[in-house]
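Feature request, filed as a ticket because there's no other form

It would be nice if the structure record came with a short human-readable summary line next to the tokens. Right now we just get the raw output. Example of a typical job, pasted below so the devs can see what we mean:
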Amino acid sequence: MHKKTGLLTAIIIFVSFPAASAVRDALRIGADLTNPPFQYRDKNGEPGGVEIDVTKAVCKSVNVRCIYVVNTFDAQIPALLARKVDVILPLGVTRKRQDAIDFSRYVFHLPTRLVARKEIHLLPETQSLRGKNIAVQQGSIQEAYADKYWRPAGVFVKNYPDLEAIYEDLYAGRVEGALVPSVALTYGFLRTPQGIDFELKGPEVTDADLFSRGSAYGIRQGDSSTKRLLNKGLENIIRNGTYSVLQKRYFDNQDLSVKNP
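Raw output as currently delivered:
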């Protein structure tokens, strides 16, 4: 696995033009590109992944340019509030985030799970994890959960800027486990040579106050025009079958739908 250089300080902009004749104003979309298969850099250094493909389809369906503004995950909401971007790629719709920003309709649900080496007996419980080093991503709902329940109970919670950095330290043995979105893990790290000796441990981790029912595009509060645009685009690609095709391409028949939205 390769170390990134310069990503933490640089903001890189990519522009994607829809194949439509009349193009209205662009949407600047915040991305971190460190969460395969949802968002990453392809072999040409361009944005790739299911969230990028879904977003391109959304933008195309409503005749809008996608401009990807790349930064770290924990910088996305500050960038949105500072008007450096107009939209954040899907993130969990938590109560805390709803106090700061608005969201589009749900895009999908991503369960949270603990991952560790197969030979290590760990469960997502304080008694099992006490004294262990457990990785979480900065600014994530997994970090909020670990800080609320595990850190006070003697678990050494280590914060990382992105999932790639977590996987590197997990593989190197610098942490015993990690609390992460399980779909990204299953269809990303666990399918790599580095991830072959790792597995999910225990049941889904959830909390009604901290976790979300699903993930959605982040939007500034009061930006009703962007919200309507995104919702219309999502409605379009769900109705015409594009969303279903993209989900199956990346995740086979796994159900990522939001329950009781």
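Something like this underneath would help us a lot:
The chain has nine helices and 13 strands.
Residues 224-239 form the longest helix (16 residues).
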